[in-house]
Every structure is written in structure tokens, then in C-alpha cells.
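Lab notes, practical 5.
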Amino acid sequence: MDEPTLSKYMACGCGVAHGRRLFSAGLLAAGATLAGLARAQQPREGVDVGDTSKFAQLVSAEQIEQAAAQQYRQMLQQAAQQRALAPDSNPQLIRLRFIAQRLIPFTYAWNPRARQWKWEVNLIGSKQINAFCMPGGKIAFFYGILELLQLNDDEVAMIMGHEMSHALREHARERMGKQTLTQLGIGLGAAILGLGDTGRMAANLGGQLLTLKYSRDDETEADLVGLELAARAGYDPHAGTTLWQKMEEASRGAPPQFLSTHPSSPTRLHTIELNLPKVLPLYERAPKPARRFGPPAAPASAATAGARG
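Output from the prediction step:
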């Protein structure tokens, strides 16, 4: 084969090889795109509670979180002054913080801001059956909820996940947004009628963070998101039903404070049971906690008697 022919043959061969490479690369790119589209179209595994409320956008998340941090700090200072703030060495506080550290990584998918939150968990020495999580990840448990209800770790995880979910779904911010809108309407009406000005609207909203009562829809969202958080962290979601059965038992007579802001009902239990199949596969695949803790020693009287006292 002479040199021109050989050169022509080589050029043709390189062109064919180059074309094959381009074709293969195109197939790989197309395959990756199709795979990405398939993943995007797959339904999300776990519970479905829809988007967060648009009313939350009416109030600054930063301001709410700053107000929450200030209120939380004041509460801890008061508890410390009354010698009711558990030290870091308290076994039940160690327990709460261990469970929280397992749940926190799964909060990020529900609210990107949670990555920047300075999460805190503290234990207050009080007989109250109560717990909460303020905006920005400020968590507090009262000793009574652990002692009087004799909660196991799975049940503690359900409460903690539930409370975290109120913060993640920005329920406090949503309610304040609705209140701000109402105040705005009243203030504008008053200004038009010459009855006042609008400069004092939406003031001191942060002071309400410890007394907010959530709607039934908020409570359902928190139940379901909390159920998923706990399941992903390796805590048995069946505890969602045993927890509320204990709450129902404790509510006979004078309802504990927890139920004043977290009303229980057969519908609530039914909703949790309906959603168990959605989270059980997550729990079954999840690494289980390396440590298990027990509740505090039971009080001399029964838990329900203590709740009524």
C-alpha cells in the first residue's frame, strides 16, 4: 500500500474511531440524563405532607430564630437559678442528646436552614409532662415526661422528632405570618379611617414562641415528619402509637400541659397507623442505635397519678 493510500486509510480509520467515541459518549450522556429523569420522577420514599405554608414567608426566619434563641437562653437561666437545669453529666440528658444526634442529620432534607442551626438539647427538672423544639433547633424536655410516662428510647425519639418537625416545617413562623397579615389588615384599616398608624404592627412576636398552640394540620404534619425522622435514625416507628396511648392514659383527669398544645384523638392514632407502612422500610434498612437507655426510676406513685397531681 503506497504512502498516500496508507495516509488516507489511516485518516479514515481515525475518523471512524473518533465517530465511534463521540457516539459512545453521546450514549453515555443520554443514559445519564434518562437515569436522572427517572430518579426525579420516582415518588419520594417516606411520608408526604406537601409544601410549607406561604404565610411563613411574611415573617423573617432569621428574626424568629434570633427571638427563639433569646427566649431559650432566658428559660435556661431561670432554670439554672432554680437549680432545675440538668448538668451535662445527667444520664437522662446524655440520653436525650444521643438520640438528638441520631435524628439531626435527617432534618436537613426537610429544611435546608437546619444545617446552620446551632442545635441544643437541655433537660429541665420539672414534673411537667412537656417538651418542645423552638425555631432554630432549641430543644427542651421536662423531666416529668420521661419519668411519669416511663418512655423508652423509641418513644423519646417520636416526641423529639415531632418537636423538631414543628421547627423544620416552620409552624411558628407560619402562625406568626398569619397573625402579622391580620394585624396588617387591621392597621391599614385603622390608618385609612384615621384611627391609628401602622408602625406598631407585628411587634414582639418572639414573645409568643413558648405559648404557641398549633393547628390540627400542624400537629398531623409534625406527627408524620417526626415518624419518618425517627425511623430513618433507627428508632421503631411503632412507638408512635404506644406514645400517644400513654398520653391518653396520662390525660385522664387533668390533662398534662403537653396535651394542651398537642391535643390527642383517635384520629391522630389512626393517621399514624395508616402511615406506618411508608416508614417501616426506612426503619428496617436503618443502622440501629449503638446504645440503648432506660427511663428514670419510676416515681413512687403511678405515672397517671403524678400527672393528675
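Observations recorded by the TA: Residues 3-16, 185-203, 303-309 have pLDDT under 50 and may be disordered. The chain is about 55% helix and 5% strand.
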